[in-house]
Design brief:
The structure holds two protein chains of two kinds.
Chain A: E1 3-11, E2 17-21, E3 25-30, E4 35-36, E5 46-50, E6 53-58, E7 74-80, E8 89-95, E9 100-105, E10 125-131, E11 134-139, H1 141-144, H2 147-164
Parallel strand pairs in A: 6-8
Antiparallel strand pairs in A: 1-2, 1-9, 3-7, 4-5, 5-6, 7-8, 10-11
Chain B: E1 3-11, E2 14-19, E3 23-28, H1 35-38, E4 46-49, E5 52-57, E6 75-81, E7 84-90, E8 92-99, E9 103-106, E10 120-124, E11 127-131, H2 134-143
Parallel strand pairs in B: 2-11, 5-7
Antiparallel strand pairs in B: 1-2, 1-8, 3-6, 4-5, 6-7, 9-10, 10-11
The chains are: A mainly beta, B mainly beta.
Chain lengths: 165, 146
C-alpha cells in the first residue's frame, strides 16, 4: 500500500474528529482573541482577527448538538477556494487540542458514518478514512462554510421546533 | 488612505457604528415622553424632534431589544432612513473616524441570518465594532428583521 497523501486530524473539545487535506491546514494558534457576534448561527458565533482581517470561528460539534463545550483555546485556520484561480479564503475552527498529521493511503476508504446520513450533513464528507480504529470523515471545507449548510441547518432547527410545538 | 466617518453608539460597552448621516439628532434621556403623554404605543416612549415623535427603543449589548430602559442609558440617538425614523437609547454617542487600513469586513455570508441588523464588523484598537445602517436597524427594531 503506497502513501498517497498527508492529512491533518482535527478534534474539537466535544471529541468530534475530522480530517482535512494537508494543504487546507494553514495555521494552528493557541489563545487567540475570539469575539462573539450576536445574531449568528450557533455553530459560527464569533470572529477572530488574523493577518489583517476577521475570520469566522466555527464550533464543529455545534453542527450536530445544541449544547456542546465552546472551548476555543486552540484554533485551526483552514484555507479553501470557492472557484479555481480565486484567492484563498480562510475560516477558523475551534479545537480541543493541537492537530496532528497522518499519512493516508489510497485503500483507506470507509462507509459514511451514521452521523452524516442526514441530507444536511452528507455533503460535508468527501471521503472517510480509518484512524486509530475509528472512521474519520475528510471534510469538504467549501461546504462547511457554505450558505447551503447554514440554510439546511436553520431549516432543520425550524422543523424540529415545529415538531415539538 | 480613505477615512470612514461613523456615529459611534455605545450600548453596555458595545460599540455600534452607524453612518453619521443616519443619526439626525441627539436628545437627553430625561426628555423621553411616556406613552401617556404621547398616545402612541410603539417603543418605550417618544422624544420630540423636528415636529415628530420618535419612538424610543433600547437594546442590550447583544442588540436584543429590552422592555425597560437600563439606568446607564444617558442619551437618545434619533435615527432616520427612507421615511422611517426612531430613537435608540445609548450610554454614549460620539463621532469617530477610521482609516481604511483598519480591519473592515462585511459579515461573512455563512454568519448572516436575516434577523441580524449587523452588516459589517470593524476591528480597531482591540475593539470589535458592529456596523449597521439606519434602514437595517429600523427594520430590525420595527419589523423584527433587517
Amino acid at each position: 500500500v503506497g502513501v498517497a497523501a498527508q492529512a491533518w486530524i482535527l478534534t474539537d473539545s466535544a471529541g468530534y474528529s475530522i480530517a482535512v487535506a494537508e494543504v487546507e491546514m494553514t495555521e494552528y494558534l493557541i489563545g487567540s482573541t475570539v469575539m462573539a457576534v450576536p445574531f449568528t448561527p450557533d455553530y459560527c458565533p464569533s470572529v477572530m482577527p488574523w493577518r489583517g482581517r476577521l475570520l469566522p470561528v466555527m464550533h464543529y460539534s455545534l453542527l450536530f448538538e445544541s449544547f456542546s463545550p465552546r472551548e476555543q483555546q486552540h484554533i485551526g485556520v483552514l484555507a479553501y477556494q470557492v472557484h479555481p484561480g480565486e484567492p484563498l479564503r480562510h475560516v477558523a475552527l475551534a479545537l480541543g487540542h493541537a492537530p496532528y498529521r497522518i499519512a493516508v493511503t489510497e485503500q483507506e476508504s470507509e462507509a459514511l458514518p451514521e452521523l452524516y446520513a442526514e441530507p444536511a450533513y452528507r455533503p460535508l464528507v468527501r471521503s472517510v478514512l480509518r484512524h486509530n480504529g475509528e472512521p474519520v470523515p475528510v471534510i469538504d471545507v467549501n461546504y462547511l462554510v457554505s450558505i447551503a449548510l447554514r440554510d439546511s441547518l436553520l431549516e432543520k432547527t425550524l422543523t424540529e421546533l415545529h415538531a415539538v410545538s | 488612505m480613505s477615512r470612514l466617518d461613523f456615529a459611534n453608539l455605545t450600548i453596555d460597552g458595545q460599540s455600534l457604528l452607524l453612518p453619521q448621516s443616519d443619526v439626525r439628532h441627539i436628545e437627553l434621556i430625561d426628555n423621553i415622553l411616556s406613552h401617556e403623554q404621547d398616545n402612541s404605543g410603539t417603543g418605550l416612549g417618544v422624544v420630540e424632534h423636528d415636529h415628530r415623535h420618535w419612538p424610543v427603543f433600547s437594546l442590550n449589548r447583544e442588540l436584543s431589544p429590552l422592555v425597560k430602559l437600563p439606568e446607564q442609558r444617558r442619551l437618545v440617538a434619533c435615527i432616520a432612513a427612507d421615511q422611517h425614523y426612531l430613537a435608540l437609547a445609548c450610554d454614549m454617542v460620539t463621532t469617530i473616524q477610521f482609516d481604511s487600513e483598519y480591519i473592515f469586513d462585511a459579515l461573512p455570508e455563512m454568519m448572516r441570518i436575516k434577523e441580524s441588523p449587523i452588516q459589517a464588523l470593524l476591528y480597531a484598537d482591540e475593539t470589535l465594532h458592529y456596523i449597521s445602517g439606519g434602514k437595517p436597524l429600523i427594520d430590525f427594531l420595527l419589523n423584527g428583521e433587517a
